[in-house]
Amino acid sequence: MPMHAVQKRHFPGRAYEAGQALAEFAVIALVLFLIVLGIIDLSRAVYAQNLITDAACAGARYAAVHPGDVHGVEAAARRMLIGIEPSAVSVTLTEHPASSEVQVDVAYTFHPVSFLIAGIVDQHSGTGLPLHASAVMGVE
């Protein structure tokens, strides 16, 4: 037999194994895809929480230096909101004259992108996950 001629062997049932591998890959790929989407949504929620915490701190710092300037406090807090919709955020200033402190509260509703995470967070009602941050500083 010449060297260049290669005989192809036939193994019974080999075609079924290829189909089985494809089906297993489809199931595993779907699960892996859902896990990755969940990680991305969780990361977005943590990012949004960090943003509103920073916004509350920035607003409280501004309010400590400029007491009574509600619009300035709101503007200082909203400047920190990069990556989320600023109109979906509420900023509240509370002054405590007895203790010479100001408190800034920032609230935001996070809406997950993935269907599964939305089902876990708000049972597909569309209400989202309410996030809240607060910062208190003494008036200078």
Can you tell me about this structure?
There is one protein chain. By secondary structure, the chain is an alpha+beta fold. It has one domain (15-138). 49% of the residues lie in helices and 20% in strands. The protein is built from 3 helices and 3 strands; from the N terminus they run ααββαβ. It has helices spanning 14-65, 70-78, 115-122, and strands spanning 89-96, 101-110, 129-138.
Can you give the helix content as a percent range?
40-55%
- How much is the radius of gyration in Å? 27 Å
Query: How many separate domains?
Result: 1
User: Which strand order does the major sheet show?
Assistant: 1-2-3
The largest pleated sheet is described as: 3 strands, antiparallel
Mean pLDDT: 85
Give the DSSP E fraction (strand runs of 2 or more residues): 15-25%
H and E order: HHEEHE
Unreliable stretches covering 5 or more consecutive residues = none
Overall, the morphology is rod-shaped
Counted by DSSP, the helix tally is 3
Q: End-to-end span in angstroms?
A: 96 Å
Structural class by secondary-structure content: alpha+beta
> How many strands?
3
Q: Tags for this entry?
A:
single chain, 140 residues, alpha+beta, three-stranded antiparallel sheet, rod-shaped
Concise account of the structure shown:
The chain is an alpha+beta fold.
Show the helix and strand layout.
Elements: H1 14-65, H2 70-78, E1 89-96, E2 101-110, H3 115-122, E3 129-138
Antiparallel strand pairs: 1-2, 2-3
Helix pairs in contact: 1-2
